[in-house]
Design a protein that fits this description.
Blueprint: E1 2-7, H1 12-25, E2 31-36, H2 47-64, E3 70-73, H3 81-87, E4 92-94, H4 95-104, E5 110-114, H5 120-129, E6 136-141, H6 152-155, H7 157-171, E7 175-178, H8 186-190, E8 198-200, H9 201-214, H10 238-245
Parallel strand pairs: 1-2, 1-3, 3-4, 5-6, 5-7, 7-8
């Protein structure tokens, strides 16, 4: 089985971290292919940045999905996941979606803890898009600055632990999700310091991708994720143009 992780931000070190966490999570023999956006921002934190990221998601999937069994949008809040499901024949899942659905199997209410306050509105809209607002206890964003997105989890670990504990004690969260691809791998390092399950979005997406691919779901020909009717499109890559032109 081959799983494609498409990171729609431009930080290669984050992609490398995603790949390492995914490889540690999947079954022996499963291949992880992880790719990074060529254009955009170092990490996605706002709605405007997510729009750019969504376009990068489609480009990455057009370029690299051939031969893969399933694809993961490897950015929290899943920019472009809906459009990718329309265009691709293989299953496409979002990292935030996988984390939230996993959290719902571990407890009644979940909180999302992340490292930048700008993310809160966009994350809340992602929860609502997935129909899970009634299961959300809170979104807690750590304040403060960090030097490097690739080391943010080390720089802000104590503050993130405090926010996780507050989500449990004050917001009555049964499960806490660590939000953001740069936090991949941190849940295991913090597990003994937070009194409820911690969900790592990358690990959850990797395992759920394996399950989904093994079910061999057919491509929808009806419903809201059927392939759109072809139309002329300009200014995009040849691979993406081909995706849009498929019948």
């Amino acid at each position: 089985m081959k799983i494609l992780f498409a990171n729609p931000n431009t930080t290669v070190a984050v992609t490398d971290r995603i790949a390492a966490v995914a490889r540690a999570a999947v079954s022996p023999g499963t291949e992880i292919i992880a790719v990074t956006a060529r254009h955009g921002v170092p990490y996605i934190a706002t709605r405007a940045e997510a729009v750019i990221g969504a376009a990068q998601t489609l480009d990455l999937l057009a370029d690299h999905a051939t031969g893969c069994d399933v694809a993961v949008v490897a950015a929290f809040a899943d920019p472009g996941v809906g459009g990718a499901r329309e265009l691709l024949s293989i299953p496409v899942i979002g990292m935030a979606e996988a984390a939230m659905l996993t959290a719902c199997m571990l407890g009644r209410r979940f909180s999302i803890v992340t490292f930048a306050t700008a993310m809160e509105p966009w994350y809340r809209e992602c929860v609502d898009y997935n129909g899970l607002s009634g299961r959300l206890a809170s979104i807690r964003c750590v304040t403060g600055t960090f030097r490097d997105i690739n080391t943010v989890q080390e720089e802000m670990r104590d503050a993130l632990i405090d926010a996780c504990r507050q989500a449990v004690e004050q917001d009555e969260a049964d499960v806490v999700i660590l939000g953001g691809a740069p936090l991949a791998g941190l849940a295991g390092k913090m597990a003994d310091r937070v009194p409820v399950p911690l969900v790592d979005g990358v690990a959850a997406a990797a395992r759920q991708a394996e399950v989904l691919a093994s079910l061999h779901p057919r491509k929808a020909t009806a419903g809201s994720f059927r392939r759109p009717d072809p139309k002329p499109i300009t200014g995009v890559s040849a691979a993406l143009k081909q995706l849009f032109s498929r019948q």
